[in-house]
Amino acid sequence: MKRAYISYQGQKLYATVDSEDKFLTLDNGKVIAFDDKEVTFLPPCKGTMFALGLNYADHATELEFKPPKEPLIFLKANNTLTGHKCTTVRPDNVEYMHYECELVVVIGKTCKKVKRENAMDYVKGYTVCNDYAIRDYLENYYRPNLRVKCRDNTTPIGPYIVDKEDVADPHNLTICTYVNGQLRQKGSTKDIIFDIPFLIEYISDFMTLNEGDMIATGTPKGLSDVVPGDEVVVEVEGVGRLTNYIVKAN
User: Fold this and answer.
1) I need a surface site. Which of 52, 105, 213, 249 has the fewest CB within 10 A?
2) Do 26 and 49 sit in the same domain of this protein?
3) What is the pTM for the complete model shown?
4) Quick one: which of 155, 152, 153, 173 has its CA closest to 214?
5) Do residue 217 and residue 129 come from a single domain?
6) Which domain holds residue 37?
7) What confidence tens digit (pLDDT) does each residue in 37-54 have?
8) What distance, in Å, lies between the first and last C-alpha atoms of the chain?
9) Looking at the 3D structure of the chain, how many domains does it have?
């Protein structure tokens, strides 16, 4: 099942999504079109986002870094999250702003000190995010600062959460990014350095993971600049296709 969180006719509502992303069924049974103009997609998750840096070997090599020996994790505040078909501002006077298509793991129940062999029991499902970065302010790839990663609405996420049971192997999914219809990035989650069970065990060893928390698992190679007017679509096979639009600062 696919579950979205939307704003519709002044109300915030949950809805299930059909297999072809054509219809939304509200909890009261009403069916509306997926692309209905009155629908605004909201971030489907509300917890803390744990984001991974350099978690694909090809991306680390692309940046001329050695793959990390331990997960490089940073937090993203909820102000960064925005929904499907929403806009993201490219700040004035920056040289390089790039997309990052990522598979996101959604935690389904509270866990602490979980062992690897039990880690997937705590996964609710998966979604997609685009973790934009403002490269101009990046001083250290191992510790990206707030101006790089925590600006308002710079992490589109969604359009929905896909149940864990509906994704046969999250470690063998194709990842793609399209800018104005042109394929710019293509990789596979099979190239993740630190896999999902490892990350859940690693994080939960020193802090509690709560229902609704998210782990953005990193991005493969193939990054490029985006500018106002661009339509950016990030897609994870079997999980979702997320659209976002770049606009200029007011």
Assistant:
1) 249
2) no
3) 0.95
4) 155
5) yes
6) 1-42
7) 999 999 999 899 999 988
8) 39
9) 2
